[in-house]
UniProtKB/TrEMBL annotation:
Pfam families to which the protein is assigned, alphabetical: zf-met
UniProt domain C2H2-type: residue ranges: 35-63
Organism of derivation: Handroanthus impetiginosus
Biased composition annotated in UniProt, kind: Basic and acidic residues: 1-19
GO terms for MF: zinc ion binding
GO terms under cellular component: cytoplasm; nucleus
UniProtKB keywords: Cytoplasm, Metal-binding, Nucleus, Zinc, Zinc-finger
Entry protein name: C2H2-type domain-containing protein
Region ranges (Disordered): 1-27
């Protein structure tokens, strides 16, 4: 058993450790998704994923340029 200052410090550390993380995963996901497919409006992280998306979901269409 701890007493005095040790007990208070231990309680403070446990309270900090058990706090929920700030922000949400949805907010972080929205920040990371920058490219949007103009056909089906799917959000993707980068241009390479957009090219892969076109190859699998829209094989008859040509992927847009990198701009």
């Amino acid at each position: 058993m701890t007493r005095g200052k040790q007990k208070i410090d231990a309680q403070r550390k446990n309270a900090e450790r058990n706090q929920k993380p700030k922000g949400s995963q949805l907010e972080a996901r929205a920040v990371g998704l920058k490219v949007v497919c103009p056909i089906c409006k799917v959000q993707l992280a980068n241009h390479n994923q957009l090219i892969d998306h076109y190859g699998s979901k829209h094989p008859k269409e040509k992927p847009p340029s990198n701009s």
